[in-house]
Amino acid sequence: MTFTDLLLSCELGLIFGFLSLGIYITLRLINFTDLTCTGSFTIGAATAAQMIFLGYNCWLATLASFLAGGAAGALTAFLHIHMRISDIFSGIITAYTGYSIGLHILKGAPNRSFMEVDNIFTQQPTLLILFLLVIFFAIIYVFFFSTRLGLAMQVAGYKPWLAQQFHVKTTRMITGGLTLSNALIGLSGGVMANYQEFFDITQGTGTLITGLSIALLGEKIFPLRSLLASYTGCFVGAIAYQTLISFAIQCTSLGLEPYDINIILAILMVLLIWKRKSC
Amino acid sequence: MKNLLTILVTLCTAIAGSARAEEQRPKVLILRVIEHPALDSTSQGAKDLLIQNGIDKKRIILQSAQGQPTMAKQIIMSELSQNPRLVVIAVGTMPAQTCKTLLRKYPNLSIVYASVTDPVSSDILPSGSATENITGVSNFTPLQPQIEFFQRIQPNLKTLGMLYNPGEKNSTIMVQKVQEACEKSGVSLEVQAVLSAEMMVTGVQNLVNKNVNALFVSNDNLALSLIPLISKTARRSCIPLYVSDTDVVMQGALAAFGPDQYAIGQQAGKMALTLLSKGPLVIPIEGPAQSTPLINAKLAKQFKITIPASLQSSEKS
Known about the structure:
Low-confidence stretches of chain B: none
CATH superfamily of the largest domain in chain B: Response regulator
Number of strands of chain B: 12
CATH topology of the largest domain in chain B: Rossmann fold
Largest sheet of chain B: 7 strands, mixed
CATH class of chain A: Mainly Alpha
CATH class of the largest domain in chain B: Alpha Beta
Radius of gyration of chain B: 22 Å
Strand order of the largest sheet of chain A: 1-2
Oligomer: heterodimer
Distance between the termini of chain A: 37 Å
Radius of gyration of chain A: 19 Å
CATH topology of chain A: ABC transporter involved in vitamin B12 uptake, BtuC
Largest sheet of chain A: 2 strands, antiparallel
Structural class of chain B: alpha/beta
Helix content of chain B: 40-55%
Strand content of chain A: under 5%
Mean pLDDT of chain B: 87
Mean pLDDT of chain A: 91
Number of helices of chain A: 11
Largest interface: A-B, 47 and 46 residues
CATH architecture of the largest domain in chain B: 3-Layer(aba) Sandwich
Low-confidence stretches of chain A: none
Order of helices and strands of chain B: HEHEHEHEEHEHEHEHHEEHEHE
């Protein structure tokens, strides 16, 4: 492991942190099994990529990716609440649709590159921009989930009957939570598109597993359940996850086959999260 | 936690030790976008050529990005951090794009792309000609000769059905070009989009229902990885399948008139070899050197197709 590898893992980790934060919100805060992730990531990244490609301001494009991801979340909520489709299924439906919508946004081009145009990382150092984004969203996240609305949202997910006693409109709260969570996933996609200067439509596949494992890894590393700890956990977990991947890649230079990467990654994860039997 | 730390530290030392032991000569990284028969033989071609020309095995690293750009970036960076002078043979569009974005920070990086259909529109070579850092071999072969070749095997070929994945850039480019070539040869084209492996059988059946005389798969990674399945489904209705790569013919296609992916790999390997021995210089870009016909004799017999005498030399059973 060298310094450059760690730096790269940090950069990727901070981007994937938003993805896992989105998943964490639905998984732990509003207790909704949301599988929209693949769709919202694709839609968010496609929106950002296409807008930058067409010459819009890159920050505007990144904001648009946030909104587009949110729209995908709202669709899942609509399917769940108004069409009475189960949580898992409505997420899958949106995730499926996301692929086609993503291709529509990209005007049928499955791989959009914009290397010649400025993006959010062109002017300033990558890590600085990412840190600013992380801090900005940390303030919003902690502030929002401490307000009455944010607390109501959490109650609506965990104890719907209690929420109804307090006249909380659970359906609105679930819609809000899903929108927020998928907006963050969309943002992660948008920032990722900015970062790598191109976007490939197949990239959304697998984000669900990545995001989930990061969220769970983050929980293990930061077992505290305060808001700030959970937020930090997502990002630290993401950095740890990327470091593990980078480490696994280097292990292959010890004579292992290139396709052993996933096994090494799995072993490293087990080593990191296993627990001894308590006597 | 403690156990993990110990293991990590031990492994780190081992890796660092192994890296130090090697000489600091430029290395070659062969990076595939994903594991898949055609791309594998391209990488193998490049690797074999380098080894035949006396490059030490330890200087050649073979990796797969598993379809993920982030993974591609991490693989390249982990090699770059050990050795700033690196020649990357990027097999597929995505790894080549990832390399291209790294050029700004690492001007010592040399990129040789292989199996890229259109390097211009994917921003790998926006100017269309090689630079000091980027060169390579595209895998685009003229389509007209391919269609004409199919017509020689199947003189009654009226409608050709093409399977493609709209999620792959190379395929979307290919569809337009096949359309043009078909118009010139007087064949009508039916196109079927297939988004994922589960949809493949339905897609094939849909084309069969449209009364196509033959199926065609050209440079589409999804379809190319499912050749046995496509072939089996189409054979039930007695419809032959043509492909663009000769490597996959024996998996169930009737014939192909295309470049040898292994030879493309060798071409790319040759470029990398020049870059290794002479340092950075401009090498003009290339296309596939030659197209060879290949016919699956066993399947031809099954379809009761008599191969014209002029083509019998390219039969293989």
